[in-house]
Amino acid sequence: MTLSVICPIYNEEQYIEACIESILAQDFPREDFEVIFADGMSSDRTREIVVDYAVRYPFIRLIDNPRRIVPPALNAAITASKGDIIMRLDAHAAYPANYFSALVEAHNRYMADNIGAPCRTDVLHKTRKSLAIREVLAHPLGVGNSAFRTGISEAKEVDTVPFGCWRREVFDRYGLFDERLVRNQDIEMSKRILRNGGKIVIIPDTYSTYYARETFGRLARNNYGNGKWNILTVWYTRQFDSLSLRHFVPLLFLLSLLLPLVVGGIFGYPLIWLAAVALFVYVVVVSFVSARLSRQKHLIFFYIVVSFFTLHLSYAWGSFCGILKLAFVKR
Fold this sequence. Notes:
Spore Coat Polysaccharide Biosynthesis Protein SpsA, Chain A; 13 helices; alpha/beta; 11 strands; 5-stranded mixed sheet
């Protein structure tokens, strides 16, 4: 069984070498897989680095993605690929030696439409601030009940997995990635599979390590975009189940603060206390969890609290702005 590994990239100079080195360390036979990087016309050294590896390792290829967003990159790579199994990677991540073989073998064992593995969060440069961000992005209060982030002990059916690994015929049956979606295209594909009777399985036999943003500013920008595209994904697909409830919890929290203030300002002050109570409960919960993480992981309490606030509020504000943007978006 042959494997095509596809990876969208854009300005990944800082991460691409670690990603490729982890690919080269795989225990899957090299004669049975190819690697296709779809580059969004990077302006840093990403293309140069990939080309250098491609010269030395002929199974690595570089193709262009002039549209610069992920779905066209994935679809172009799928079209250019030749393998029986198609596996997506992310350049912001590294993979243990058994990653390819474990996912391919799982297809034979579980006969699922999409196979994945848990995703561990790490940072490339370990500082007190970046380590606090790492812990928040791996904690249920930060990422909800997502099985691939919180960990598993046995294989189970889930609603989505990170990155993904599919038999080629899955794309004939369910279609390619929705090119309208700048983000969430992988989650939407998973929901489309499930909606049509397919099966998605996560296995504990391997994992990926995702390298998170390391500053509060980058964390905020990334999660603002995630939150905004939650709303736009539902708008474009016309399917509320294109995402899961956990994706909208930050927005609901923000609305619990804003609506009492607006309505209370119009009809009287008592409603403002609802916002105060919601904020108080949130601060208490975040402070309690942050204090525990600070003790257990020997991290700075302040950085953990700020990481939670940054993650939740940027995500929520992105969703709120996504709602406002609907007036200007064409389907």
